[in-house]
Design brief:
This protein is α+β, with helices and mostly antiparallel strands and 391 residues long. The chain is built from 13 helices and 16 strands. It has an eight-stranded mixed sheet with strand order 2-7-8-9-10-11-12-13, covered by helices on one side. It has a six-stranded antiparallel sheet with strand order 1-16-15-4-3-14. Strands 5-6 form a two-stranded antiparallel ribbon. It starts with a helix and ends in a 9-residue tail after the last strand. The structure holds 2-acetamido-2-deoxy-beta-D-glucopyranose (7 copies).
Length: 391
Amino acid sequence: MKLLNLRYVLMTFIILTSYFAHGYVEECRSRMYPPKGPTFKGNVTWYTVNLDSPPSERWRHVMMDKKPELLTMIQAIKDLAGGFFHGQILHLVDKELPLIVDTLPYPFNEEIKGVAVVTGVPLGEVVLFNIFYEVFTVCTSVVTEDLNGNIYHARNLDFGLFLGWDQKNQTWTLTEKLKLLVVNIDFSQNNRTLFRSTSFAGYVGILTGIRPREFTLTMNERFSIDGGYIGILEWIFGKREGMWMSFLTRKVLENATSYEDAKKQLAMTELLAPAYFILGGNQTGQGCVITRTRVNTLDIWEIDLKLGRWYVLETNYDHWDEPFFLDDRRTPAMKCINKTTQANISLQTIYDVLSTKPVLNKLTTYTSLMEVSTGKLESYVRACPSPCTPW
Ligand SMILES: *[C@@H]1O[C@H](CO)[C@@H](O)[C@H](O)[C@H]1NC(C)=O
Ligand SMILES: *[C@@H]1O[C@H](CO)[C@@H](O)[C@H](O)[C@H]1NC(C)=O
Ligand SMILES: *[C@@H]1O[C@H](CO)[C@@H](O)[C@H](O)[C@H]1NC(C)=O
Ligand SMILES: *[C@@H]1O[C@H](CO)[C@@H](O)[C@H](O)[C@H]1NC(C)=O
Ligand SMILES: *[C@@H]1O[C@H](CO)[C@@H](O)[C@H](O)[C@H]1NC(C)=O
Ligand SMILES: *[C@@H]1O[C@H](CO)[C@@H](O)[C@H](O)[C@H]1NC(C)=O
Ligand SMILES: *[C@@H]1O[C@H](CO)[C@@H](O)[C@H](O)[C@H]1NC(C)=O
């Protein structure tokens, strides 16, 4: 079955690639900020999630607002999944996944149950929605330092690869649905902001977050043969070691108190699947990409001004290897950052880089910009009208 899957994926890849007549790489964009025009689809709404209220209640107001969009998204996932393995996946989702919710760590188990209750979506499907991103997300994240030692951290979140291509609209089906679920969350405790994130309503882990004045954190998927997603399947079928990646990022944002503390936790905790953690701190030299396997850390690649390394950038390939030739977002992104120079780096110019195709592509759901010193998190829903690369 595994081989069959691989062949399916490769064939899709090749057909799509020839269909789109190869990568569309454009000149580095400039003056894209403030966001406007055809690549800007909209602002993201802010909600407060109060960590002092019980986990099952925390997301109520968010989910009341976003229930219709979540239902649409879940239906789209089901339509797609129904087409594989004669609907057996759906059977698994509705029969097996509700059982695993109690095996998830607190408070995530309670929060997920709360989301299911408020929206009326079957528990197994909310669980599936929360697992999904660990599997189908490709991204670009960057941490940079300017000449004054200010640290900026930004990312494009690209989601939905191979998940249904809408031929008429030239869009990815799930990507478009997901854009409607993008929300900004202010997590508060004792009536003050503890951390902020950009997320998808109904998803309780974190892919993009900031702890104001302390650190910033994003996660990118790492495709890897040393373990891959076997850990997730093992969890579902009873062997439960390691931590869900996006639960760890949330835990770190909630409970780590400094860049160094966050780095240690991200590097040392056993995981269910490989990942890249991109971490920014609040002073000079504090920015790194942590390359993880399930059990250990292969590499921590840090900003080093003495070596002329004033930024670190991660897509979905180990930084010491070449990116996959059909998916090179790294070279164009680095080219544009190099062209910007450290003297002119800012949230505005980083937005320009993240607006340049193929760094911006048809999978891009949102762009986030973070400035640790002010605690600022700005996110924008994106679009990439044709001609534009599918990923
Ligand atoms: C700095 O970036 C801005 C915004 O993209 C651009 O207009 C300006 O020309 C750049 N300045 C230099 C010195 O490159
Ligand atoms: C997005 O927010 C900015 C700043 O608050 C505002 O100027 C702009 O009109 C908003 N755009 C849309 C499309 O809502
Ligand atoms: C495709 O585009 C049309 C017209 O722009 C729009 O009405 C329709 O909702 C889109 N379909 C999807 C699935 O996004
Ligand atoms: C938060 O503020 C509200 C009103 O401002 C107050 O009623 C409540 O007691 C405060 N909660 C905490 C935990 O300080
Ligand atoms: C953070 O620590 C507190 C206190 O130990 C704990 O109650 C909470 O669940 C932790 N948060 C996460 C997300 O694990
Ligand atoms: C940076 O973070 C550390 C650890 O949280 C904190 O003690 C320090 O005050 C912060 N520095 C700045 C400039 O905010
Ligand atoms: C960008 O600059 C860095 C540091 O000078 C260099 O190592 C890298 O090759 C450059 N990348 C591109 C794509 O220009």
